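User: ok so my PI wants both of these folded by tonight, can you help

Assistant: No problem, let's get them done. Here's the first:
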Amino acid sequence: MSKRFSLKLAFALFRSVLLQINYTDFKRVGASVPERCRQFFQASTFLYFQKDEHKRIKIHALCQYIIANASTMVIMTNDSRKMYQLRDYVSASPLLRNVYVLTIVRKFFFFLDPLGTGAIRIRTLIMDPMFKELDFLRKSEGMLPATSWFHLDHTNRMYKKFRNLDADGNGKLGEDDLRGYDPPLTNSFIAQLLTTKSTADGELDFRDFLNLELAVANPTAPRSVRYFFSIFDLDQKGYIIEHDLAYFLKDVLEGLDETLELEPGEEEFGSGKVFAADVMNQIFDLIRSKHPRVITLDDLITSGAAHIFTSILSSRDLFDNWEHNDGLRINYHLQRGPPSPPLPPHRVLAFYHPEGSSAAERWPEPPAPPALAVVTTDA
């Protein structure tokens, strides 16, 4: 029986017989596995996991951890480059070192300094799980999944993605560069992103880009919700109204009816246009805000649907994906009844103007909404 097979067999027995394992049995297993696998059974590995009241860790979590790191271990072995050699390589490369440090630091400040003060309390820092993850990386000679934000491979991927988007090589991402972002972003979202989140003359530098990546990767985190909220709040007034939604929906819905196909058995009826008012009604139903037709940051966070809200307003592709797969059912093709009730004059949202009307019609000024507790949304 090969060593690899014996290790797989050991874990199969774990999964079928046990749910948790204590430290004594953990060390006993570590002593019985092949030499090259014993690095996964150090005390630091056991301390990495959350323990139950009997000081046991979950076997399933341990198996996932080892599987995630095994590929990295094989790559490092085949390449004859140990973790300490990689660390020396990072130290010897000023550019890579600076990028790596910036990438790590940015995550801490993004989540622990939401108001952008430039400072984090020491107690807040050391008590946060991110610090424990980074400390584990230091103690365990880099034994973290390659998907971890603190892994060197992840830093390389982020920097490569930034450089690939930076078409002119000026170290900043402008409007044209961001059109190559995946998933594709609408022009209105890109314009507002650059207006509210850039610190480099209207373009995103690498730090700004990392903020965007963190927000996209953690869409339901309160800090990410705050990040996107300040983009959608056009006038930075502390709340979002129909006027704000209309600005972003225009790009999302424009021409959408021309690309859709009827479902089998359906007949085309009426204009077949996508009514922004219908989309907007469903957005307000989704968020269930405390004030009618007004969405605050607190509404967005407590709704649990902030990631859907962001997807609908920022990307045509994400909107299509949500509509087709998750049930935001808007009747694109069939107008079997009248559209949503007509809105007051200040809420005219028709992106598809009747014949003879001007498509360049300016948005009328919306009236003041009810008094709200305004929330600061500084990036």
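One down. Here's the second:
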Amino acid sequence: MLGAENLADKLKAMAADVRGKSRDTIDKVIQKILFLIFSLKEWTLDVAKRTGELKDAAMSKVALDAGKRTGELKDAAMSKVAGSLKDLQQSSSEFTLSIREGAKRVAGDCREGVEKLTQKFKT
């Protein structure tokens, strides 16, 4: 996310040197980048919160069931929860990686757009 924020700062600096419609266009690009960063951060926080809630609920259920049952049932439940949590952890890791890759891709696309704008103003 830091790369996209740096890109927004560079665009702000560029916008200070530009006038008219070009400045408006750069301002719109900056706003879209900042909104995307905000949305991705909110999405990531929501996923982390839900993951924690699911983990807590699963652990509470396992603890309750384990208190009522013995031996093999307890071991089986713990094994299933551990497997589910491991799967959830893997999914969360893949999701986080996907978000990072998407943010990098957007930042790269924005960077290309800025480079095109820069070339346009140089000529």
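Residues 2-122 form one domain. The CA atoms of residues 9 and 30 lie 8 Å apart. Good luck tonight!
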